[in-house]
Amino acid sequence: MKRSALYLAAALALSPVLVATPGLAEGPTTNLADVRSGAFALDPAHAKIIFSTSHFGFSTYYGLFKTFDAKLNFDAKAPAKSTLEVTVQMNSVDTTNPKLDEHLESPDFFDAAKFPTATFKSTKIVVTGAHTGKITGDLTLHGVTKPVTLDATFNGGGENMFKAYVLGFSATTVIKRTEFGIKTYAPAVGDDVKLIISAEFDAVK
């Protein structure tokens, strides 16, 4: 049997399973009228905080934080009334370069021994579209607290294939690290740090 015929046979065999599996065929909805409100906890296995900044203008550094937590109270009827709190462990930085990670955790940059966590607490949410918004909050980093606004997208809510009720979000922002007292090598090593965030939240039972 040719390979194309094998693929077709496999697809036909699996089609009843795919249709019968809740959440796998329909996917999440962005229609807030159909989304559940309440308390949600971060699913750390399906969440990322990625950062990037310029390296002397020649290339871009990329890294992420491996350990963080978040709590969300989501109001589907009035999203602007929702609240978000995030805590990041600063000694969990990962650039795939152990020496660079150690340097970032040192007093030259994060000073993770003195400032072990960074936190974000929302103070205002503005709805900008059917499933977009701006989340403003107080970011405390390196012992300094300043307002930061996330450009957020609601990816949808619904039951996944394991019957867990999930909300999904993406967000981006840019912060100036020198405003938080992290000044080493600036501006040669970029002052502007871009954050890319993706997260799933599970309903708290």
TrEMBL record:
<dbReference type="Pfam" id="PF04264">
    <property type="entry name" value="YceI"/>
</dbReference>
<keyword id="KW-0732">Signal</keyword>
<dbReference type="InterPro" id="IPR007372">
    <property type="entry name" value="Lipid/polyisoprenoid-bd_YceI"/>
</dbReference>
<protein>
    <submittedName>
        <fullName>YceI family protein</fullName>
    </submittedName>
</protein>
<feature type="domain" description="Lipid/polyisoprenoid-binding YceI-like">
    <location>
        <begin position="39"/>
        <end position="202"/>
    </location>
</feature>
<feature type="signal peptide">
    <location>
        <begin position="1"/>
        <end position="20"/>
    </location>
</feature>
<dbReference type="InterPro" id="IPR036761">
    <property type="entry name" value="TTHA0802/YceI-like_sf"/>
</dbReference>
